[in-house]
Specification:
312 residues; Rossmann fold; 5-stranded parallel sheet; 11 helices; 20% strand; binds xanthosine-5'-monophosphate
Amino acid sequence: MKFDPEGFINEKISWLKKEIGNEIAFAATSGGVDSTVCAVLAHRAVGKRVIVGFLDDGLMREGEPDEVVGRLGRMGLNAKLYCVADPFFEALKGLTDPEEKRKAFRETFHRTLSHLAKEEGARFLVQGTIAADVVETKRGVKSQHNVLDQIGISPFREYGFRVLEPLVDLYKPEVREVGKRLGLPREVFQRRPFPGPALSVRVLGEVTPAKVSTVRKATKIVEEETADLKCFQAFAVLMNDMATGVEGGRRKFGEIVVVRAVDSKDAMTATVTRMPWERLEKIRNRILEDIPSVVKVLYDITPKPPSTIEYI
Ligand code: XMP
């Protein structure tokens, strides 16, 4: 049966109205299509009684916190920015195992939300979990930050709030349709996905402020140089290993950055974007120029499966 965005919107607005009643809700929003669609549905249901919170966890892209909160505010939402980087770096300190890092992020994210929601008097958390997040987490591929109930973690028992997930049965293309029908700006409903744990999943090994700063610079370059390309996601990853380089005839041991760009419909499978060679050279030149600690820039040519889109 063909998906009916209008019917879906009406159904979810009534459901959110009924669930939230006269209470206050908190919608944690990254500015991505899933969480923004969710926040707008909640806003249509209960108006300013939904606080649309952006958590600046220190892992976001350059300029992202102000840019996203500004846009949410211009959309008429009750948007607020919370600066909460310290607990995230503290929780990630010393961790190198991918799943341990993901779980540390998830735990800190929900503890922080719980604290903020309590301060704001909110008992409900409106969350943009979609079907792909649940499927991949339940299959054990990787623990996505926004999947709790479905794997036996009660948000109410653990964190003291009830989670409402209006998009949990949809995949990305349908969420985009809903976003379009809601009249969101094109830059929101067509936005490339960005993972909830942000740049922490794009630093292999221990996540430190210095490494996040390096991958943030590389990400900006890749995103700028691929802005006009039709692809599902394009990003940079910082490897944990170092490689030998040479500068001015002398040995230079430096960092390795991987550039990855993929085409996909719903993130469940992906093929590699056939990036024009000149574009890759430009990205390489800019990364080497702007980030002197890097001695190698690689392009990842692996589809999903057997790879996943992100690195951890
Ligand atoms: P993978 O790496 O599993 O990614 O092929 C599939 C899609 O999900 C995004 N991703 C996440 N999104 N929380 C999210 O909200 C997460 O923990 C998470 N991990 C991966 C990834 O960017 C891709 O679009």
